[in-house]
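Onboarding guide, step 5: your first structure request.
Type a short instruction followed by the sequence, for example:

Predict the 3D structure of this protein.
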Amino acid sequence: MANKIEMTLPAKVKYLSLLQQVATNYLLSNEISDQDQSNINLVVEEALLTILSTSLKNAINQELSFAIDIQDQSLILSFKDMGEPFDYGQLNNLPDQTIDDESFEKGLSLFIIKKLMNKVELLNLGKKGHELKLVRYLNKYQEPIEKIVEEDLSHLPYSLVFLPPEKAILI
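The system replies with structure tokens like these:
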């Protein structure tokens, strides 16, 4: 397995092909399937475009950090930036008739990311900005988190967060 790759680059769309090439070479060196490579490249594209259109929308001379790693049979993609905070959950709360083109595109990007990755986390790093952390299980027998609950729970007045046992606490 290849070591973790980390890079920091200007937060500009023209670097998308560079990020995709880095991801592709990393995945090739780790013998990841062609289908997974295509999916990961699409995720990299959607994640970068979403970050640039939300968190870094008004940014000038901002940087974006990207990392790709494999740990415990999971591919981990990380995007870190110092841009404006953005609540990805707000897109889920918009009624269909009020979604403008920009919100629709962001929502579609997040939908694609969520469908192709097993775990999507937006982490607040305080003064260090925020991180979009994406995980894809490489072990085909590992059950994705989304499949644990098959019933649509979006109508409930609270949010459901899956935690690994070591992070859960007894109440």
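Each response can be followed by summary notes, for example: The longest strand covers residues 63-71.
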